[in-house]
Input
Amino acid sequence: MNTILFDLDGTLLPIDMEQFLSQYLDRLSKKCAHIAEEKLFKKALWQSTEYMIKNKESHKTNENAFMEDFCPRIQKNFDEISPVLEEFYQREFKTLKNTTQKLEPVKKMVHSLKEKGYTLVVATNPLFPRQAILHRIHWAGLHPEDFDLITDYETMHYCKPHIEFYDEIISKIYKDPEECLMVGNDVQEDLVAARLGMKTFLVEDNIINRSNMEIISDYRGTYQELFQFVEALPNLHEHNDKDVI
Output
């Protein structure tokens, strides 16, 4: 194992998802009040997000899928919506930081893995534009350059819990599933990576199990146990040195 995929919300970044979504929808719909009536906008956003999640057309990015469904619902074209959304994610989205919590050991864990030579991926469900994801990475006390790949809706073509989401990640980083560990807190969305052949670690502090599914994971535990697990992982540089010798 030389590659670790991390879920973002509820894993790298503890978050009150109910509070986050409530504030997010309110602020975004108010920002776009001149484009569409607030109630219509919120309903269309939910419906088009659901459409995007279900869509598995490999030639469409998640952004393409979302916009082709969303624009007709609010009777606007992409060029009318795009600048407003871009400004929102650049500016107003930052105010949602209050719904999250930074864990200092997360920063230490990521930096430790980097020093040990692991390939690191932010494998967040790519429902948001990259700017929104970068904000949340910063809120966790991390930096985009800490990671070899960050999933976003501009570049990804599938969403969780589709296995194709994980398949697309490993094709982008040129890895085999057996080289990877997926770390997340969502039983349905994160543990599905095992079907591809990845190892999984379920973080239990903020566990999400919508369907009360049977939990099957290679590893599981609290944040503290995750940090201990990572600390015990071998230094890949040392292993490579031994191989050379």
